Amino acid sequence: MKQLIFSLFISFFLLLSSASGASAFENPFKDIKEKVSDGLTSLYLKLPGSKPGDVVLRESIEAMEEVSSLDSKTEVELIMKDQDEMETGNINLVISGTSAFDDVYNPDSLKQDVNIDGSFEVEGIGMSANVDLKTDGETLYFKVNQLPALPFFDTKAIQDKWFITRAQEETAVDSTDASLENEEELKQAWIEFRDGVDIGQAEKQDLDGVGVFYLQVKMSDEVLKDYIVSTAQIEGGESFDREKTEKEVQGVLDAMDDINVELWIDRSTYYMRKVSFQTKVNLTEIEDFDTSQVDPQMLSIMEVQAITTMDKFNDEFEFVVPEEALDFESYFYQFMMNGGSFDQSVLGAFAEEPAELPELSPREKMLLEQYGVEVEEVIQ
Asked: Model-level pTM?
C-alpha cells in the first residue's frame, strides 16, 4: 500500500511538473523543480512493476540526444507477394557500422563508417551487392566490394577501390545553413509527433542480459502524415507543395496496414537498445500505381520488417579518410567513354586531381548520345 501511495504521489507530481509555466521568469523555482522532477522520475522508474510508456520514452529521447557515437545494425526485409499473398521474391538489406554526431538533429554533423550488404531474389534468380561507405557530413567515400554481373559492363573495374564524391560547394553551404535554421523546427515537429502517438505501458524485460523497458507504440495515419509532411516542408522551403505532398502521403498510408513499432530501452541509461518496425502495403491500392511497370501477378503486396540494434554508446570514434580515394566523376566518365570497360594501365591517372575534359571524339559523342546526354552539356 505504501508503494502504491508513493507511486501515485510521484505520478501526480510529474503531472503538475508537465503543466508548469513556459519560462523561468514566470516561475523562479522552475530550475529547481526540474532537477527535483528529473530525480523523482528516475527513482519512480526504478520501482517494481510496469511504468507509463510516455514517461520512459521521454527519458530515452533526452538520453539519446546526448549520445556522441554508437554502433548499430539495421536489418531490413521486404517480402514481395502476389494478389493471392503468395511470396514471389524478397529484398534483404543489412546496414552495420559506427555513427558519430555533434548534434543528432543536424545531418551535417554526422560522421559514419558503415557497410551495406544487399540481396535480391525473385523466381529463383538472385543478385547481391556489398558496399563500404564513409561520410564526414560533406564528403562521401565509398568502395564497392561486390556487384552483380551486368551485361556489357566490366564491373570488376570499379570494385575494391575507394572513390570520393562531393556535393557542389554552393549546395553544401546552403544545406548547412538550412540545417541550422531548421533545427528547432525539426525538434518541434518531433515533439508534436511523439506527443501524438499512443504509447502503451513499459514492461520490464531482459534483452541479451541487459535490463530493459519494452514498449509498443501505435500511431494514427493523421499523426504520421502530419509528421512526414511537416518535416518535408521544413526541408523543402518555399517551393514545397504541401497540398500535393499530403495527398501523396495519404494515398500511401491508405494502402498500408497498421504500423507496429516496438522499443527496448536500457533501464539504467535509457539508451535505445533495439527498435522493431513492421507493416504491410497493398501496392495496387495506391492511387496512380503504375501497373505497366510492375505486374500485379508478381507484386501486389509488400511486407516490410526492420530491426535495428544499438550498442557501444559514446565510444571514441576516429574517422579515417581513405587517402587513395579516386575522383568518382572523372573515373566514371572515362569508364563510360570506354564502353563500360577500363584499361587498367590508366588507373594511376585518377589518383591525381582530375584534369580538364579532353575534346570529344566522334565515338565518344555517339556513346554520350546513346545514354541520353547532350554533347553540349558535357563540353560546358
From this structure: 0.69
